[in-house]
Specification:
The protein is mainly β and about 325 residues long. Helices cover about 10% and strands about 55% of the residues. The chain is built from four helices and 20 strands. The longest helix has 8 residues.
């Protein structure tokens, strides 16, 4: 590390100008020394200028790299507080967002995409507050306002998000959801992530032809593949919108739907579902065990229409095409 300064005669050197630089080959040792939540070894560089103030050090410019990730920042580091908080405006870019986050936390559901992000941040008590941060992740534009807490192995994330992009499927795949539409999209929601799973609430999601609103929760402590949903939607093609559902192929028809329930690898449980699928009308409640142990429990179904195939097909039953009531 190197520091040069033009000092004033003030007792605490208030108003003094400083130039600084540092090269840290081992980020793990830095984290242990400063009490920062750093999980892996990368090189860190820092160059900048600043001024000593009555509260601490005001950074007028600071820039460098964390591994392959470039950053620039300006802000203030308090030196005389028992619980210091770093408040700064920052910009960062790099080849892989998941790799960046992996330096600080587990990254199972972080997109492994190039990124450019910037905004106002506050770091205190192992919590990073975004006020907000916006930019690009891959081909997706994103804005986030909220907090990330780094106390555990997985960050606790509580964010208000908005995003739009040209390929929704590429984002869904990073969350373990296959078979989504490769279409342009726009979405706003509240997003929470913890060790137990993900909750997406106040969802307002649009593709070129579809609208979906509601709440989705992915995962729980003993069943990470469990998906809860409380949704309403409408669109031009149900098959193009839905991700892969084991044992079921939706029809490629216009639709409206109100649905509450949960899905995992073994079972679909639906306390309430009403829909129009093409020319068909449908209401459904009950449980369906998925293949290979296909079984219906407490299922009540009301459906009518000129083409049964409008309801889609189950792997075990196929999709016969005749009128039904």
């Amino acid at each position: 590390a190197r520091v040069s300064a033009l000092l004033t005669e003030d007792q605490k050197f208030t108003g003094s100008r400083i130039d600084f630089s540092a090269d840290v080959p081992d980020s793990l040792k830095l984290g242990e020394t400063l009490g920062l939540p750093i999980r892996k070894t990368v090189g860190i560089t820092l160059r900048g200028t600043g001024e000593i103030t009555a509260a601490g050090i005001k950074f007028e410019s600071a820039q460098g790299k964390v591994g392959p990730h470039k950053y620039a920042a300006s802000g203030e580091l308090p030196l005389y507080s028992n619980e210091p908080a770093l408040n700064f405006d920052a910009a960062i870019e790099g080849p892989d967002l998941a790799e960046l986050v992996s330096i600080f936390a587990v990254t199972d559901r972080i997109p492994a995409m190039p990124y450019q992000l910037g905004g106002t941040l506050l770091f205190a008590n192992n919590t990073l507050s975004l006020k907000p941060v916006s930019g690009n992740i891959g081909d997706n534009k994103i804005s986030a306002d909220g907090t990330l807490q780094f106390a555990g192995s997985t960050p606790d994330i509580d964010l208000k998000l908005s995003a739009d992009g040209t390929n929704l499927n590429s984002i869904l795949q990073t969350q373990g959801i296959e078979g989504g539409p490769a279409e342009s999209y726009a979405v706003t929601s509240l997003f929470k992530l913890s060790d137990s799973g993900i909750t997406i609430s106040e969802l307002d999601f649009k593709t070129q032809d579809d609208l979906l609103q509601g709440t989705i929760t992915v995962g729980e402590d003993n069943n990470p593949g469990l998906v809860y949903f409380d949704l309403s939607g409408k669109g031009a093609d149900l098959r193009s919108l839905l991700p892969t559902i084991p044992g079921y192929t939706p029809a490629a028809v216009p639709f409206t739907v109100l649905a509450k329930g949960n899905i995992d690898q073994q079972r679909i449980s639906i306390p309430e579902l009403s829909a129009t699928l093409g020319t068909a009308k449908l209401s459904l409640a009950g449980e369906l065990d998925l293949p290979p142990n296909l079984k219906a429990t407490g299922v009540t179904l009301k459906a009518s229409g000129p083409q049964l195939s409008d309801l889609g097909s189950l792997t075990a039953w196929g999709s016969p095409d005749y009128a039904f009531d």
